[in-house]
Every structure is written in structure tokens, then in C-alpha cells.
From TrEMBL:
Catalyzes the reversible isomerization of glucose-6-phosphate to fructose-6-phosphate. The keyword Cell membrane does not apply. It comes from Achromobacter kerstersii. This is Glucose-6-phosphate isomerase. It catalyses: alpha-D-glucose 6-phosphate = beta-D-fructose 6-phosphate. The gene is pgi_3. Pfam families: PGI. The lineage of its organism: Bacteria, Pseudomonadati, Pseudomonadota, Betaproteobacteria, Burkholderiales. The active site is at 342 (proton donor), 373, 500.
Amino acid sequence: MGKANYAIEALRANSGLAQSPEWQAFAQAAQTAELDASTLKVIEAAGLCVDLTMQRQSPALEAAALNLLQARALADARHALFAGDPVNWTEGKPAWHTALRAGRTREQPDGQDADSVCEYSRMTDFVRRVDQTADFSTVLHIGIGGSDWGPRLAIQAFGGPSQRRQIRFVSNIDGHAFHDAIAGLDPRRCLVVVSSKSFTTSETLHNARAAIAWLKQGGVADVSEHLAAVTANAPAARALGVPASQVFKMCDWVGGRYSVWSVAGLSIALTVGADVLIGMRAGAEAMDQHFQQAPFAANAPIQLALAGLVNCSVLGHNSLNIAAYSARLLHLVTYLQQLEMESLGKRVAGDGTAVGVPTAPIIWGMPGTDGQHTFFQWLHQSEDGAPVDFIASLQGHTDSPDAHRLLLANCLAQRQALLRGKCLEQALQDVAHIDDQERALSLAQHMVHPGGRPSTLIVLRQLDPRGLGALLALYEHKVFVQSVVWGINPFDQWGVELGKRLATGIERELAVPVSAGVVDWGHDASTSYWIDRYRGHAQAPRPRHAWVPGMAAHL
Ligand code: F6P
């Protein structure tokens, strides 16, 4: 068996984590490790600084972590990822987003050079043509999930009043989303970009058809000229009416949630320029190299992953808060929610048996300082709180140095408060002016912050495309390392299929005309009731099912 095949077999066989001696040693070392921030632990990687000082540390934990990673064959798995081996073993596909970043040198599987496979030049030529003709003042971007979040994130981060054209996004199937997106747009000056790897996603196809109808109604003579598509399913895009010259190919060996590195960046190039994409790819590639070359103990994605394993799988924290101290990273949380939760939200290992330890924390958050006025109370004083990844940059908007200083101060202060907390003695000092001793004590008890809450700080020099690319790749590789330890395949998403299939059947039932009479749908009582209620067949619930005024008196 070749090395690559060996790695795939090892990935598939990476089960039995909870019972393994390496895991048990790791868990034990994690429970006894200190969380006192006495030893600075900062890793520099691809222009980012990852500060893990406020995570549990000890020499025993470091040694146990290295043993664990060796036992889980991380080095082989990483080699398989970068070699383009089918690491998505349930679907027999590579997950070769790293090849998109290293595009300029790497030979692709069919022997073509990277650029002709990834179609970057075709895409940038198209953007140049669009810029030269100046026909389009707006872009309507249609896509969902991985075909939406990357462009939203990057354009929010690097766009603004001076961007070359405005953009509206529509992802949701809700008609309000489509109508809000087109409000005030001139269809004759609008380019519609349909982004869908599969070109079968019902929300995207529905919205694309609505956009075509809108273009036609708006007096556009040749609708096809107003359409571009990004997809791995070119025939479907052609069938919708997109001319071949405006269909850009996504590769089947890149997962949807990694597609921002592909021509799915078309809308980014059209609005904030292809340089943003080039910068993001360069930053991500620098992180790829760091991930491959840095020793495990000084490897930023690996150490970030280990901190997450301690917090989630050993200490039982079931969520991870992301607090980016940047208004321009508004969409980072949603981007990371898909990356982390669609990748790791699974509970069985390669052989189908349970992983046996808690996996995949819920990812949530909001930019700082808004989050401080929303849920930070919970982070500081609830029973368990949650670990936090703070993200900040050393430089901010050049016109507002004072504001940036304040932003950074808040970020540093919040993590210090989470770690240090505030004990009763300190709280009593705050209420020393109250004469009534009993009242002072009771008030002081409300002011106690338990502290001892872990966090990581990730610092960019400044928020630029390179930094954002490195940041996203950092999280991608963190996810990969955790998947290898847990034995999970991070590249499939079976969990979204069942609901999609059921929706198709229910939509058909909702459309059955009232004239068809009462139908036994064979569903549970609630689903059948709501199908009938929508069709106008069911009555409002009888009083015994619903609250009616005065009911409480009879209970
Ligand atoms: O949510 C499931 C999913 O398949 C994601 O993985 C993907 O990013 C999204 O739907 C959109 O898929 P597509 O790009 O094929 O339209």
C-alpha cells in the first residue's frame, strides 16, 4: 500500500479515541494543567500572532498532546490532504482547497496546469471586460452557504463607498429576501452572478429564475448577457441560459465551504477587485506552508486545535465564542459557523462507531465591542461561560487612531477579566462605602466574577486581504486537525440532506389543491395539521390544545 493510501486507511480507521491510552493521558494532563497565564505562548504564523497564553498549559500536557497527535497519525493525514488524496473518504473525493492557493506551480490530476483548471485568468479577463464596458453598475449575487458567505465576508471586509460597483446578495428562499435585494436596482445595469457548486440547490435555482424573470420584465433585451455563473455543473448553468463564455468552473475536488478560494470569488473581484482575491490566496498559502512545516509544538493551527480539544472534549465546553474586534469582520462568525459546524458537527468516527467524547462546539458570537453589550454578561458570570477566540488587529482605520486604541483596550481587558475574574474580597472593597454590612455583602456576591475562563487572542497586523486569507486558513487547518483526532470526516455534510429531501415532499403536499379534499399524509400529527392548515382544510386548534383566556383558572 502506498503512503497516500495508508493515510486514507488510517483516517478511516481512526476510531476508538475515548478508550485509547493516548487520549486518556491527554485528558488527564489537561485536567491538571494550569490556567494562570504565567507563561507567554505566542506563535507567529503567516503574519498572524496566535496567543495561547490564556489556555491551559503544562509540560505534561504538551508531551501528551504530541503523543496523541502521533497516535492519530496527524502527519500522514496532513500529507494526504496536501497531496490531493481522497481525504473525504465517505464520498471518495479529495478536499484540495490548498491546491487553489498554491495554484501557480502545482500540477493538477489530469495533467493540466493549475490556472487552466481553476480558471482564474478566464475570470479576471471577464472582470476586466466588465470594467471596460462599464455596462453594469450593480451585481446581484445569488448563492447560499459556501457559495455566499465567502463573498459576503470579503466584500464587507474590503468594500465600502469607493468600491467599483455595488452588490446585493440573495441567499434565502424567502421572497422577501429577493424583493429586498432588487429594490431600487435597475435591471438594465445589473449583472446577475449565480454561484452554486452543484447547481441543484433549490433556493439558488428559485432565486435565479426569479432574477431572470425580473431582468425580462425590466426590459433587458438579451438576458443572457446579464448572467454569469460559477459552478461545477456547467451543463445546468447553460440550461438556465448562462452563455458558456460566462460560466466559470468550480472544481469537484473542492468542498462548497472552501470555495472562496476558487472562481466563486467572482463577485469579490467584480466589486472590490481581483487583488483582494490574490492577497487572500497568498495569505492562506502562507498559512498552508506554516501548517506543513512548523513543528507540532509551534504550529498555530495544531495548537489552536489542541486548545479546542481540551476545552470541548475534556472540560466539556459545548460552545466557542468568536469575538472579532473589527466591524469589518461582521460576517466572520457565520463563515466560521459553516466551516466548523458543517465540517465537525458529527458524532461517528470512520468505522461508524461513536467518537465517545464531546465533539464540535457550537460556534457563535458577534463583533466586539457590540458583543460586550449583548452577551458578555453571560461569558463573565454565568455558571459555565464559554471559551472565546478574540481576534484583533494592531492597526486600525488610519483616520481614527483613538478609536482603535479604545477598541484594542476593550479586547485586552475582556480577556483579562475572563481569566482573572473578581473574588469576593475585591467585590467587598467596591461596596465598602455601604454602611449596612448585610446589604454590602449581598451586593458584593452579585459582583463576583468566577474567572478562570480560557481564551485565545489572534492578532493581525492590519485587516488586509493577506491577513484575512491567513486567518481563514488557520481555522480550516484547525478544523482538520480536530477531525483527525476525533476520527470524523470533516468534508461531507450528510446531516443537511435528510431535511432537504423531506422538504421536497412536503412542498408537493402543500401544493395539493383544496379541491383534493382531506388527505391522509401519513405524517406525525403536527406536520399533517400544518399542511392542512396551510391548505385551508384544518380549523384553528380546539381549546383543549390552545391557550384561551381564563384557561389557567380551570387547570
Ligand atoms: O448546506 C449544504 C450545502 O451543500 C453546503 O455545503 C454548500 O455550501 C451549500 O449547500 C450550497 O451548495 P451549492 O454551492 O451546491 O449551491
